[in-house]
Design goal:
CATH architecture: 2-Layer Sandwich
Low-confidence stretches: 108-119
CATH class: Alpha Beta
Oligomer: single chain
Largest sheet: 6 strands, mixed
CATH topology: Transcription Regulator spoIIAA
Number of strands: 6
Number of domains: 1
Helix content: 25-40%
Number of helices: 5
Strand content: 15-25%
CATH superfamily: STAS domain
Length: 143
């Protein structure tokens, strides 16, 4: 993914960097290293606050540096992110993972009974990808 003159870094700590590109209405959260559970949850909370503040329609998380994620943290994201993003403008969310991490990701909450809980009540689609380019293309596609 190309960073443009309109891409601004809006947050950084030892585990992640968050960028916003307002003309693209894109928030990009990039994990720089394997986060602890606390860092993971704080990072997503920070991303949520920034997505709401900037009214971004698209969210791309680059998790290629995250080699594993505890199921409790995965379920926390599924259960806690939805309500927090409910009042925002988010239309699509893409998460980029390493192949090994994708295999170990518990997608059952997304697939149970054929319903994606992020799409329930007209929220937003959430998809997983192996490369940033494909994720970015999907985010920008017309519905």
């Amino acid at each position: 993914m190309v960073y443009t003159a309109t891409t601004r870094q809006v947050y950084e700590d030892e585990a992640l960097i968050i960028y916003v590109d307002l003309p693209l209405s894109l928030l990009r959260l990039v994990w720089q290293q394997q986060p602890t559970s606390t860092q993971y949850r704080q990072g997503y909370r920070q991303g949520i606050m920034l997505a709401l503040e900037h009214k971004t329609r698209f969210w791309l998380t680059d998790s290629r540096q995250v080699l594993y994620l505890h199921q409790a943290d995965q379920h926390w994201m599924y259960a806690k992110m939805r309500p927090l993003l409910k009042g925002g403008k988010l239309q699509r969310m893409a998460i980029v993972l390493q192949p090994e991490t994708l295999i170990m990701t518990d997608q059952q909450p997304l697939r149970e009974k054929g319903i994606n809980p992020f799409q329930e009540k007209r929220l937003f689609p959430l998809e997983f990808f192996l490369d940033v380019g494909s994720a970015f293309v999907w985010l920008q596609e017309e519905k």
